Amino acid sequence: MGPILTFAYGLAAYSAFLGTILYAIGFVCGFGVPKTIDTGPVGPIGEALVIDVLLLSLFAVQHSVMARKPFKRWLTQFIPSAIERSTYVLLASSALILLVWQWRPISAVVWQVSEPTAAQALLGLSLLGWLLVFASTFLISHFELFGLRQVLLNLTGRSQAEPQFKTPMLYKIVRHPLYLGFIIAMWATPLMTAGHLLFAVGATAYILLGIALEERDLIALFGDEYRRYRQRVPMLVPLLRQQNVDGNGPAESHPANPNVC
Predict the structure, then answer these.
(1) How far apart, in whole angstroms, are the C-alpha atoms of residue 224 and residue 37?
(2) Measured CA distances, 59 to 27, 207, 238 (Å)
(3) pTM of whole model > 0.90?
(4) Which of 13, 12, 48 is nearest to 194 (CA)?
(5) Which residue, 183, 169, 200, is CA-closest to 236?
(6) 132, 169, 215 from 212: Cα distances, Å
(7) pLDDT tens for residues 207-239?
(8) What tens digit of pLDDT does each residue of 150-202 get?
(9) Any idea where the domains of the chain sit in the sequence?
(10) Nearest partner of 81 among 13, 138, 139, 6, judged by Cα
(11) N or C: which end of the chain has fewer CB within 10 A?
């Protein structure tokens, strides 16, 4: 692949991500899109559970496996290293599209907030969570995280700089505001159905697993510097200090190397 084709591939992957994540916001929040987390064909609960769990598992496996260094080394035997991240982003978007498309609603109500002001406040909190997600990516390196920087450097003949340890703004309060934003966005809803609850629980479980995997990689990359950061700054909840700092417990990832995620 030449530099121009590589850049076009990266741009297409980024466009796919952007369209998919914007649709996903409407899907989770329940507005502005043809199919939401609580709409679509309703079938037997057992069938819906199996399909939804498989969709969540596929999404989690794709994210976790492709983010690991051994898989990256294997993949770059077949594709240029400049598009490794773009390929990850494209396949992640595809997994999310499949999840949204095939998701089966489970309409049993877990909780419902009917009071208009409180309902709007919860919806606003969910949107604030999504805003936190996007803001967090720009505080680290948004375009590197989603593969555009790599293909642009390849186009201009420049090399990728070595990752540096940094803690900009929100990362001084919690180690991963991006994950915190996702959790807020998924759980803050005026109408929590069983299907939405399954989605929120599954995604939160994946986040905690991802934290453990990323923590291992980041300690290997930054060593004691990251361990000291982990000791100073709480994982997800502001002001809540991390108790286990010996590297054996789950902890949050660090922004300095977005390609770890």
Answers:
(1) 42
(2) 16, 12, 28
(3) no
(4) 48
(5) 183
(6) 21, 23, 5
(7) 998 888 888 888 888 888 888 888 888 888 887
(8) 999 999 988 777 777 777 888 888 888 999 999 999 999 999 999 999 999 99
(9) 3-260
(10) 6
(11) N
